[in-house]
Amino acid sequence: MSVDGLAAGDYSLLRELPAFRRLMETGARVRRVRGVYPTLTYPQHASLVTGTYPDIHGITANTRLEPEENGPHWFWYRRNLRVPTLYDAAASAGLRTATLFWPSAGGRHSARVLPEIIPVRPGEHLFSLVLQAGSPRFVLGMLLRYGYLLRGLRRRNLDNFTCACACRLIRRRSVDLLLLHLLDLDATRHRYGAASSEAREVLHQQDRRLARILAAVEHSGRSDRTAVVVTGDHGHRDVSARIHINSALERAGLQVRGGAGASRLVRWEAWAQACDGSARIRLSRREDAALRRRVAAALTALQGDPANGIARILDRGQLLALRAGEEADFALEASPGYFFSSRSGPEVVTAACPNYRAAHGYLPADDDYSAFFVAAGCGFRCGVELVKAGVVDLGTTLAHVLSLTLPAAEGRVLSELLTEKERTL
Ligand SMILES: [Zn+2]
After folding, report:
1. What number of H helices and E strands is found in the chain?
2. Of 125, 341, 381, 393, which one's alpha carbon is 20 to 30 angstroms from that of 372?
3. Ligand 1 mean position to 319 CA, how many Å?
4. What is the pLDDT of residues 112-121, one digit of tens each?
5. 65: CA distance to ligand 1 center in Å?
6. What pLDDT score does 152 carry?
7. 230 CA distance to ligand 1 middle (Å)
8. CA of 273 to the centre of ligand 1 (A)
9. Within this chain, do residues 246 and 387 fall inside the same structural domain, yes or no?
10. Can you give the residue range of the structural domain that contains 243?
11. CA 249 to chain centre
12. Which of 332, 359, 386 is the last residue of a domain?
């Protein structure tokens, strides 16, 4: 169970919530899970199910690095991942799998796929996208049974729907590996702030959903053979200012815009993709050393004024060392309080929208911004805590617990979390 936005900083509140407390007392936890760069939802989930980094699994951000003239290309699909996942390995071993709103799992071959996908391009329609990327019989069956919970697409209602579907699969013993992704905590933190009372209320709601999952496991009669794993993917940091990074590139003469409102990209030599707390920059001519120097100089000039909110410039070599993949020529890290927008605007820096108060996508960190992980049940020791680990270690460990081989995994099996029997397997 992935609770999007569940962070190390939530630890003290989680100890007060009955279902989380029960899981923590009876299971093993990692206080701080270091993410991969950039700390966006899709790369973290891909690293969790493959045990490797974006340069290998291919999910280098939430969307492709390309000018978004008609809306971004999200990494919705399993085919976007270049290496086998936990659910592939499970299916190959004859286990029955389900993925409910799990990132980058659309279009995979399985009887139980409820894809995370929404229309972002002209002419796309939600229902046909979901049926095409999901398992039609399964999706229709779940909609007939629990569609009344949706009442529009508010994240809270989606989480109720996902939880109801998960509980049914567990109670009926329909699956051996279930991956579900709950969205409301992340959405609420973006809207109201990382430590807002609204976010705390959503954590209480996620606790009640976890309680329903634990009750379903008990009802299934398979408690002794089941492990319940809850993980976050990244924290959030509060923001008050937005950097229109493509406007800065336009001012530097690296983009030309035209059309109505001068908003259409006519020509570009450098284009920036906002990844919330960071931005990735692509050159039109990647082998052009003079262009690379010109862009580097423009970025350095931009960083020179602290009001532009650029904390760091990363070059291609640094991005390769971060295992971020080869698509970007530069990346920028926003200063505290700032985040990036891909859209151009009249000013380079404007105030954040009132309904956007926290961001993620920054460089991975080992502080409260990192994710939280807890697992209890079959295979996991009771009451142990590891101070820190990496998200790639989690994927590698989960494969080990399920006796599966993840060919690309390069994390460490976190044997400290496992029972003697699991450790010696
Ligand atoms: Zn996320």
Report:
1. 15, 18
2. 341
3. 21
4. 999 999 888 8
5. 19
6. 77
7. 14
8. 18
9. no
10. 238-359
11. 28
12. 359
